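Hey, can you fold this?
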Amino acid sequence: MTDPTPPAPTPLAPAQLAAYFALTEVSSLLQHAVEQQLKTDGGLTTPQFQILARLNSAGGRLRMTDLADGLVYSRSGLTYQAAQLEKRGLVTRTPGADDERSVEVTLTPAGREVLGDVFGGHIEVVQRLMMTGLADDDIAALNDVLGRLRDHMRSAPPRSAAPRAARRR
């Protein structure tokens, strides 16, 4: 008779564990500072800022599915955050031009204004907490390592981060 219990995972080496803890601590510290700044300067949550920033960088309009694919956030959570932004007049949501089943989100002038209100403080927090302590070579190495890690993690993403398959027409 075989034992159906899967083998225990291989423990993390001390350097691996240290890297994991350093990454989670840095991420938590930066995220907390950014969240405070966004709330103070613009009354925004981090997901709301990400929605506005992605819309802005995409020319002001995206389908909700494209927003969801770019953000690691549940589709229902994204819908809620977009609704909150719409209540404030920062975005509009309309049926898709090509497919009425889809929803397009558009950045309004008021949304651009709020984004402008938070950008300066956002950049200051990131510069002060993260970039000031790094040399250009460190930033390049960090981009390389985190880029590879992100790509690896997105190769088998959770449903909320998985790109949707292209629709057949």
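Oh, and this one too while you're at it.
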Amino acid sequence: MSDPLTLIVGARYTDWRGRTWSAGVGNDSQSQSDVTPYGGLIYDINDVWSVYASYTEIFQPQSYRLEGGNGYLDPLTGKNYETGVKAAWFDGLVNASFSVFRLEQDNVADIVGIPGSFVTTATPVSDAGQRCGQRRVRGRNHRCGD
């Protein structure tokens, strides 16, 4: 890799355990684990501007019971793709960014209310997607004389 190009790779290991109790079901426990990869590439155009692209997978355990009470909703899984441009002026005192991303998710919880029950149940929704853009300009507070 050349100096203005930075490659970022990583992973997160999730080991999740949960235990619940409800009057209708009693004690119940679940455990889930997964390795979630991440990768990104940043190219510094100059001292102010850079462009980037990244990819990550999504794994988020859920504690919602399936509608009907037979087990739990599988973990929320998916993928996130993002690309954008960033700028930093005055040694990072003022920052700006513009990004676009695509989010793809499976097992999104669609909450089902049961009148008179304290148990939250859900049905899984697959192929949920979202395309978004975001722009941001921020500055840091700086006091003169410090």
